[in-house]
């Protein structure tokens, strides 16, 4: 079964073609960037080949898709009708989707209705969907949502202590993101531990440019650090994470900052970048090693804030089988993994320095033998998770769209 995964951004198109029958082999993967600009570019790999490049004139997402389909037919998929499905990454499914959905008119309407919740991402995701439907009208298209995995949060975890009508009328609540990554590593962690997922309690830490943590009880997400937007929670590369909401009022009243400037400050100029002038973790370490105090502070804050969430989510879960590190930082930064876990032996959490130094890929335990909680490093694979969920949805043949009469901002329960 061949499945094409598409992740359409405002000026980019990322893709992977999987052969699900052949051990989930990636046949072709690539990125078309700067769509609409004079210097649009297309980088790709055929299987595990070295990266290749193609010149591209690309005014619109349709041109990008046409270039991709031409490349597919020239290389690994001469007949596009062999595609079993296209799986689209969609950032926000509001309250309508707790599972992937076969795309039809009503599903598109729900994704459109969630645009106010993800104004930068959902329109681009929709553009990818609409153009693909136009170019491949006979191939089933499936939407896989970043928010879906966290739709199992109980109301006391997803509600904000704000007036109720802001939730019921305007959808102001916590949704959570990185759902495909948390879902994927949870499954892999259970497999690695040799336990059924339904009996496994986990804290999963996705630490990349964006970062989030999830508390997973019996395979089900019961809390997560990102909220109504991906700004809440952990300190990130350039996002502030949890701060006093009143700082915005202070900035507006005393510095005269406009809303858009505060938005930009919180999302693009805060986090590690704001504290030490770097957002790439490798550059922060290099700066700290050269004796830069702001870089040392950024590292200490980054680790401290993760540790606070580990403690909080341990309390939420009551019993923990494993702590899972993933994402570019989680998978590669031994210092960070060690530092987040210092002083947690009372919770049964400890890191073995030798195991931590170079954990085997794609899954390794880095806690000492016999430790109460397994500390693990699991390589995430969001594309494969989207492909797997797409294949499962295709097999089920049903969408899980909610009640069409309700807006995704409503408090309506999800119908399955
Ligand atoms: P994205 O969220 O964009 O997918 P990634 O998951 O690829 O990002 O993570 C990017 C982050 O991973 C960057 O901060 C990068 O510095 C960090 N990273 C990658 N390799 C290492 C490493 N060996 N040590 C520390 N950090 C690393």
Automatic annotation (TrEMBL):
Coiled coil: none annotated. It catalyses: acetate + ATP = acetyl phosphate + ADP. The keyword Transport does not apply. PROSITE patterns: ACETATE_KINASE_1, ACETATE_KINASE_2. Its main location: cytoplasm. ATP binds at residues 14, 206-210, 280-282, 328-332. CDD domains: ASKHA_NBD_AcK_PK. NCBIfam families: ackA (TIGR00016). Homodimer. PANTHER family: ACETATE KINASE (PTHR21060), ACETATE KINASE-RELATED (PTHR21060:SF15). This is Acetate kinase. The lineage of its organism: Bacteria, Pseudomonadati, Pseudomonadota, Gammaproteobacteria, Methylococcales.
């Amino acid at each position: 079964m061949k499945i094409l995964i598409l992740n359409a951004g405002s000026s980019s198109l990322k893709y992977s073609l999987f052969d699900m029958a052949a051990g989930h082999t990636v046949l072709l993967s690539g990125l078309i960037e700067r769509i609409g600009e004079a210097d649009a570019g297309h980088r790709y790999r055929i299987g595990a080949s070295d990266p290749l490049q193609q010149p591209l004139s690309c005014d619109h997402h349709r041109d990008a898709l046409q270039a991709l389909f031409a490349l597919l037919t020239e290389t690994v998929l001469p007949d596009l009708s062999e595609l079993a499905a296209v799986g689209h990454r969609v950032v926000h499914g509001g309250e309508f989707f707790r599972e992937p959905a076969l795309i039809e008119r009503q599903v598109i309407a729900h994704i459109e209705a969630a645009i106010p919740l993800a104004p930068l991402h959902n329109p681009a995701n929709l553009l990818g969907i609409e153009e693909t439907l136009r170019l491949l009208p006979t191939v089933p298209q499936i939407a896989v949502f970043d928010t879906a995995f966290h739709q199992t949060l109980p109301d006391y975890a997803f509600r904000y202590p704000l007036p109720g009508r802001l939730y019921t009328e305007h959808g102001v609540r916590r949704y959570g993101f990185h759902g495909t990554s948390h879902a994927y590593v949870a499954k892999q962690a259970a497999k690695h531990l040799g336990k059924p997922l339904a009996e496994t309690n986990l804290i999963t830490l996705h630490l990349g440019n964006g970062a989030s943590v999830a508390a997973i009880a019996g395979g089900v997400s019961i809390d997560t650090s990102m909220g109504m937007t991906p700004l809440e929670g952990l300190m990130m590369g350039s996002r502030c994470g949890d701060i006093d909401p009143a700082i915005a009022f202070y900035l507006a009243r005393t510095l005269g900052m406009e809303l858009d400037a505060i938005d930009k400050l919180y999302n693009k100029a805060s986090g590690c970048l704001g504290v030490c002038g770097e957002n790439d973790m490798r550059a922060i370490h290099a700066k700290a090693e050269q004796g830069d105090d702001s870089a040392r502070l950024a590292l200490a804050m980054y680790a401290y804030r993760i540790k606070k969430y580990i403690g909080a989510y341990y309390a939420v879960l009551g019993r923990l089988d494993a702590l899972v590190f993933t994402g570019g930082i989680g998978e590669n930064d031994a210092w960070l993994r060690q530092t987040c876990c210092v002083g947690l032996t009372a919770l049964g959490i400890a890191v073995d320095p030798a195991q931590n130094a170079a954990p085997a890929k794609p899954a390794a335990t880095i806690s000492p033998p016999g430790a109460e909680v397994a500390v693990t490093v699991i390589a995430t694979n969001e594309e494969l998770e989207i492909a797997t969920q797409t294949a499962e949805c295709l097999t089920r043949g049903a969408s899980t769209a909610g009640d069409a009469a309700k807006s995704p901002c409503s408090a309506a329960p999800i119908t399955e």
